[in-house]
Specification:
The chain is an alpha/beta fold. It has 14 helices and 18 strands. β13 and β14 form a beta hairpin. The longest helix is centred in the last third of the chain and has 28 residues. The relative contact order is 0.16.
Length: 453
């Protein structure tokens, strides 16, 4: 079966017209990764305004674990819209908000009592987690890590790494934020084994709790179990275990940012479950809403109750429509069948991507956890010099052939694969065929350019 159907150049005539309208009407600060102009989408397929059909491996940057327009979700939203579209949880109580909180409390790791607060976006979830942590501990400092992405509001942008893409020109930033190095096994010094490198990372971690900030001043340590924007870097288990131990020892709270890596994306409901660690707070968003804007902080009831009445919440947080979508998403993703299928997809992707290391010297690394997989491109495998321009060229070739992709990585030299987790193997294989062909075509063009020179 061929899923991709390309009838025009990309962008086609209607798409070009829409892109011109966008350029005139929309702030240029809003980036776009591709020239795809969408008309409709279903499952893992996207149809553009010119009638071209694409396979979607971007998945709304992690929002679409259940794919585009899942029937159970759209039906639940339609039913909810006929009863209640908006009330505001600060004004009255409605069952979808309570039901979703109950579900999240039940699936979050940890044997302690839990509570939840709902908001609109991942950034809002992070802000609420920080506020609750400060209120509970009566401390101010927050520890984050190099490569982290936590949002674009003033506070979350202050927490976020990758300066030029996200932070340039937007300062000054919020105070009492301390950024520590994060382990990156691929880019470790060549003279160190993985074990030696992790020993050094743990030594530096301990040192930073002396040199940068004392643990007694830290409200919370905030970390993504799998760093997303940094390049799908699973944090080594020893590092997370040491963080958990330090938090327990010094009364710091452990916050797991699962906004991109949670909701089945790694083959478990939460990525932190791979490590057997129970965070004090977990933030979720993206695939939580199956495409609807909703986020949550779930965690220890005593921490969640630390804020004064009225200290958290907002006008649209936990809207009935978004809650209806999220309830269906949680009920589906938490099933053993869905999670087992996600693991199968992860093995399929990993197996195919690993063959590219042998075929293409441009492929420096393949990594990820479960179906959250990524390819990093380098100009030299010895020096590991990033290849951001080559990565962008490969994406453009793939999009022109019908595969929607986006970049990632501290150096923007990675392609992340975040397809919906609801398709058959043949669709993933076809998408991987397109990406492999795009890599091969670019490698050949580089060889031809060298020969001509």
């Amino acid at each position: 079966m061929t899923y991709i159907q390309i009838k025009t150049e990309i962008p086609g005539p209607k798409a070009k017209n829409m892109l011109e309208r966008r350029a005139r009407a929309v702030s240029s600060g809003v980036a776009r990764s591709t020239d795809v102009v969408v008309e409709r989408a279903q499952g893992a397929l996207v149809e553009d305004v010119d009638g071209n059909t694409f396979i979607d491996f971007a998945g709304g940057i992690g929002m679409l674990a259940l794919g585009h327009c899942p029937e159970d979700v759209t039906r639940a939203m339609s039913d909810q819209a006929s009863k209640l579209v908006h009330m505001c949880a600060l004004v009255g109580t409605y069952e979808p908000y309570v039901r979703l909180a109950e579900l999240l409390n039940s699936v979050a790791p940890g044997s302690f009592p839990k509570k939840t607060v709902l908001a609109n976006s991942g950034a809002e979830a992070i802000e609420n987690a920080v506020k609750l942590s400060r209120s509970f501990t009566k401390r101010q400092a927050i520890v984050v890590f190099e490569g982290a992405y936590h949002g674009r509001t003033l506070l979350t942008l202050s927490l976020t790494s990758k300066y030029n893409l996200f932070k340039k020109g937007f300062g000054p930033f919020a105070p009492e934020i301390y950024r520590f190095p994060a382990p990156n096994l691929y880019r470790r010094p060549s003279y160190l084994t993985e074990a030696q490198y992790l020993d050094e990372c743990l030594r530096v971690l301990d040192q930073n709790f002396v040199a940068q900030v004392d643990p007694s001043a830290v409200a919370a340590v905030l970390i993504e179990p799998v760093q997303g924007e940094a390049g799908f870097l699973p944090v080594p288990a020893r590092f997370l275990e040491r963080l958990r131990a330090l938090c327990d020892q010094h009364g710091m709270l452990f916050i797991a940012d699962e906004i991109q890596c949670g909701m089945g994306r790694t083959g478990k409901f939460f990525a932190i479950e791979h490590y057997g660690i129970a965070p004090d707070l977990i933030t979720t968003a993206k695939s939580l809403g199956a495409g609807m804007p909703i986020s949550a902080v779930t965690g220890r009831a005593d921490v969640m109750d630390a804020a004064h009445t009225g200290g958290v919440g907002g006008t649209y947080g936990g809207s009935p429509l978004a809650c209806a979508a999220a309830i269906e998403a949680v009920e589906t993703i938490r099933t053993p069948e869905f999670l087992a299928r996600a693991e199968e997809i992860g093995r399929l992707l990993k197996r195919r991507l690993n063959t590219w290391r042998e075929k293409f010297p441009l492929v420096g690394d393949v990594r990820g956890l479960g179906p959250m997989q990524l390819v990093e491109f380098v100009r030299d495998r010895e020096t590991k010099e990033p290849a951001p321009e080559e990565t962008l060229a490969i994406i453009k070739r793939a999009v022109a052939r019908g595969l929607i992709l986006i970049r990632a990585g501290l150096y923007s030299n990675c392609i992340r694969l975040m397809p919906p987790l609801i398709a058959e193997d043949a669709l993933y294989e076809e998408g991987l065929d397109v990406l492999e062909e795009a890599i091969a075509a670019h490698v050949n063009s580089m060889k031809e350019a060298v020969a001509k020179a």
